Amino acid sequence: MSDISKEKKLKVAMLGAKGYPYVYGGYDTLMKEMGERLNRKGVEVRIYCHSSLFPVKPPVVNGIKLVYIPGIETKSLSQLSHSFFSILHACLSDVDVIFVVNSANGPFGFLTKFFGKPTAINVDGLEWLRPKWKGFGAKYFLWASKLATKLYDRVITDSVEMQKTYLELFDAPSTIIAYGANPAHDSNPERIRNWGLEPQGYYLIVGRLVPDNNADLIIEGFVQSKTKRKLVIVGDIPYTDAYVEELKAIEDDRLLFTGYITDPEELTALYHQSFAYFHGHEYGGTNPAMLKALGYGCAILALNTRFNQEMLQNGKHGWYFEKSHTAVLEIIDRAEQSPMELDTLRSTSRDGLTQKYNWDYVTDQYLEVFKSLKK
């Protein structure tokens, strides 16, 4: 029997990501994992999909209703316009609660206020500090994030440190709900040999190749090291960019740029068989790539930020390096000289996935928020 079968079925619209079952980033994963679980609990879930990404548009997948909404297809307007039209559509529908991701959609809360629809927003990271959003972009994200705290009924942050940030900057309380993880204990080492790799024969970076993930810093420190291991960089960006071209132009036979990897088994193997995983993400709370590294049993080397300190329990499940190529070089030297210590990190990393990172627990927390908002 479903959790809410004795009540009128709760109808929740989820929007602001790319759609379902499209899984690329953290928001898409959140909607997939939570949407499927909510559906099994008897909630009517409607996920708004970016129309241009779906050549085939089935109305229902795995019990989840899908709504396909176009956007203004330019680099700067595509996602924002899609979110605006999606929120407008949801406001005119019979859903009970609207759940929005991404603080960039903060200003669109005026629509939900006007139509009287209960709302929650997951504001995610500190977008206004990211190097790619210089000038107007940074000012927009700061303004939009502040508006999100005023226009939405419930603000969701994904970590204690992010909750503190929203209190400090906007005097805005929030509900902490982390992202979930799907740990894996096994992988097929043959999947990494497709890239000419051997188990524990490489360091790993996973993430978008943007300045705030600090791949350049890690690569610069790595090429100065004497390690015979490789550095595998998984990720890219979907457009031409001078920053990425400069990274790929660095001449060192130990560097391997794989681009995007969409095969989940291959990505799992790359995590699981790595000697160590480098996490250079600078801004944000609970990071999905870090959760994968914990869940796949990696030895984690992370940039020293308060968010990474929280996720790794202040050094219990990883080592930290400061923001300099010298610090990267030093932590590589330490790792090369301490293989037994890295073995210990690998054997205990999954212990870092406490209950708050369990998808069932995450879903239950969101369900409580949605029930409390329903009028």
UniProtKB/TrEMBL annotation:
All residue ranges annotated as the Glycosyl transferase family domain in the record: 198-341
Alphabetized UniProt keyword annotations: Transferase
Pfam families according to UniProt: Glyco_transf_4, Glycos_transf_1
InterPro entries: Glyco_trans_1, Glyco_trans_4-like_N, Glycosyltransferase_grp1
Domain Glycosyltransferase subfamily 4-like N-terminal, chain residue ranges per copy: 24-178
Keyword Lipid biosynthesis recorded: no
A molecular-function term among this protein's GO annotations: glycosyltransferase activity
Domain of life according to the entry: Bacteria
Matches recorded under SUPFAM superfamilies: UDP-Glycosyltransferase/glycogen phosphorylase
Name of the protein described by the UniProt record: Glycosyl transferase
Gene source species: Rhodonellum psychrophilum GCM71 = DSM 17998
Source species taxonomy: Bacteria, Pseudomonadati, Bacteroidota, Cytophagia, Cytophagales
